[in-house]
């Protein structure tokens, strides 16, 4: 059973879709965030597909549009790391009322980093990230050093118009946008505050991934049989921009199906622990 | 006011959003949106949300929703087809008419890109449409612009074992794929539709060039048709300047066309 709901806090109106198991038995609750700038269904409805598989395993699932995203209030230009942290907390506090001990979060790109921080909350049992941003802060600094902090239309930050093959975009900047979970076709006409990039230059931002003992990170990796690998906090290391280029989400239904299956399995394993 | 709604079609839930203006005259317009093949109710650059917000300010009700199998509505993409999308649209329109009850209103259908493949067939149904809006319509396409991701090799969907074709990160079934690649009588139906029609094109959109030429050449023969070209815009109006123009032109046209109704 699915339903829509508004979560209202601090004059922000966040739209969510909740999935409730038909059996009415709830083994746990999961909050899902899409890639940065995308609506809650994400690319190829990835997060919706994930929510459906989790609910079949008797998990309560909440897909949420962060502030400035999808059907929620605000515009993308108003989104900061702080607003994303607030939105994560709003969703997680809601889930805490649904299930006391088995609360999980799943995010893609930058949202995975936000959830790595949220995992420090005692009631969070686990967090899963799909290609979280794990780039050397100096690389980010160098990439945007000529851009003053401010609000820009994305098409001005990263000019280009070949959306099908992306040949006329700067490869590194495009890879960076993909790393945060954005898709050029979706973000190019929106405004963004580059304060977010500045905040990601902070050493501590990536460090959270390394110390997040409750975290499990999935990274695209063509050398693995399934096309991705899992990494835990102790194993995580910086990746290159090229590691994200056209790889932040693989647009192959079988890749997505297998990844979703593995995410569900790892959550259910922790539920049963 | 942005009101989430949900209705049931074939035991599956469809989720949508209604934008309702704070001030609205009786008989004011209702715009119903149908988007392209694998879109969603928010759509790229949140263009549908932006249109909804502008519609609210302009006294227009705007309805956007996810078809079954798309966005956040129930079912998987590989289970649906153009037929189910039309069923879903009719169910949502019936819901809208139920909400309006005896209150007079004028219904406009908005088809975005290949959303026209749903929007135009809807005109044949008994739903009393007052006007048709097409953003980046594709009635004709040159082969070189046909999407290279159209699948050729089938696979089995892992759970159901149904025959499906990979399409980007989704699976699409045979019927849907066939319906998608064969153009039907949409252009003729568009021409025959006797009520006002607005078509908006991007000036830098090769995918709609053939359609633009065709419609523009024959515009005098097409009753009630208006064409607008937004200079330099791409197929999805991926620039705030283009989006604003698209939305303003559309809202103004809807207000002009339905002016009589609003005054009542």
Structure overview:
The complex is a heterodimer of chains A (273) and B (264). Chain A has an 8-stranded mixed β-sheet, with helices on both faces. A two-stranded antiparallel sheet of chain A has the order 7-8. Chain A has 273 residues and is of the alpha/beta class. The mean pLDDT of chain A is 96. In chain A, 36% of the residues lie in helices and 21% in strands. Chain A has one domain: Alpha/Beta hydrolase fold, catalytic domain (Rossmann fold). In chain B, the strands form 2 sheets. In chain B, strands 1-2-4-3-5-6-10-11 form an 8-stranded mixed β-sheet, with helices on both faces. Chain B starts with a strand and ends with a helix. The radius of gyration of chain B is 18 Å and the shape is globular. Chain B has one domain: 3-Layer(aba) Sandwich (Rossmann fold), CATH 3.40.50.1820. In chain B, a hairpin with a 2-residue loop joins β1 (2-9) and β2 (12-19). Chain B has 264 residues and is an alpha/beta fold. Helix content of chain B is 32%, strand content 24%. Classes of the chains: A alpha/beta (273), B alpha/beta (264). At the A-B interface, β1, β2, α1, α7 and α10 of A face β1, β2 and α7 of B.
Task: Please specify the SSE layout and strand pairing.
The complex is a heterodimer of chains A (273) and B (264).
Chain A: E1 2-9, E2 12-19, E3 28-33, H1 46-56, E4 59-64, H2 81-98, E5 103-108, H3 110-118, E6 124-130, H4 137-143, E7 151-153, H5 154-157, H6 171-179, H7 184-187, E8 191-193, H8 195-200, H9 203-211, E9 215-220, E10 228-232, H10 253-272
Parallel strand pairs in A: 3-4, 3-5, 5-6, 6-9
Antiparallel strand pairs in A: 1-2, 2-4, 7-8, 9-10
Helix pairs in contact in A: 1-10, 2-3
Chain B: E1 2-9, E2 12-19, E3 29-34, H1 47-57, E4 61-65, H2 82-100, E5 106-112, H3 116-122, E6 129-135, E7 155-156, E8 163-167, E9 170-173, H4 174-181, H5 186-192, E10 197-202, H6 209-217, E11 225-230, H7 240-257, H8 259-263
Parallel strand pairs in B: 3-4, 3-5, 5-6, 6-10, 10-11
Antiparallel strand pairs in B: 1-2, 2-4, 7-8, 8-9
Helix pairs in contact in B: 1-7, 2-3, 3-5
